[in-house]
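Protein fold
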Amino acid sequence: MELQGRVEELEADGIGVAAISYDSQEILADFSQRRGISFPLLSDSGSEVIRAYGLLNTVVVEALGSGAGDPDVEADVAKYVSAFGANEGQLGMAFPGTFVLDSEGRVTERFFEEYYQDRNTSANVLLSLGAGTPPVTAVEASTSHLELTAYPSNQSITVGTRFSLVVDVDPRPGMHVYAPGAEELGYRVVSLSFESTPEVRFDAVVFPESEIFYFEPLDERVPAYQRPFRLRQEAVVARSAEAAQSLSERGTLPLTGSFEYQACDDQLCYAPVTVPLSFTLDFEQLDRTRANR
């Protein structure tokens, strides 16, 4: 559904969208009608394309065959197939992922998750590729040193959603902020952090490449950002039943954090600054019509 909500935006950017599944045409037609899907849902009922791309989920075959009853195989089923166990209706299913193709049909990027329930959103894929634009709900802040725009890649999430928390920073003319590595000289480097919550796992912050700034008053060469840059932290919504129940009862996922930095100009260094950030994401229930297939 997240992808459907961005189809017009993607098409306006010249990006076509299609999804392929081992499900029959009838199942896909029913799902498409119920959920209002406008992009093509392609049926690979014989899993020929899935096999050609090396994506066939062999865990199902093992669980229904030689590995039946094996605790290690059952653990793999819970990780790669379904929390409800394996059944014959899942034979032919693929490991879920996203391929990005160029105009010549060549694969340029691939995005895959370790767990079957984890799903990368189209917005997060675009951010990973260096594209995407801030939503109208973005938080904007301005200090004497810089301007920033902070936003989540997605306003709605569900169990297993992989999304990003983003801060776009634009230092003011003559200003620079310190990048990783500058802490070795005693400076406070830029950071993005969010309070821990049992419903979310946070990955490490992605920092862009910095440049070396020569600070003449101290004859120092320090990693810094002088031009607009982006910090991005990916997060995954927990797949546990406890997290699903908590999010379902509350209906939202509140996230609280901060962006910190220390800025200098050509002559002076200023005190470190903390900019508070908070977002509230909507929780959507998964479509369970195929959970026992």
The domain at 4-128 is CATH 3.40.30.10 (Glutaredoxin). The chain is about 20% helix and 35% strand. The longest helix spans residues 25-35. The CA atoms of residues 263 and 269 lie 6 Å apart.
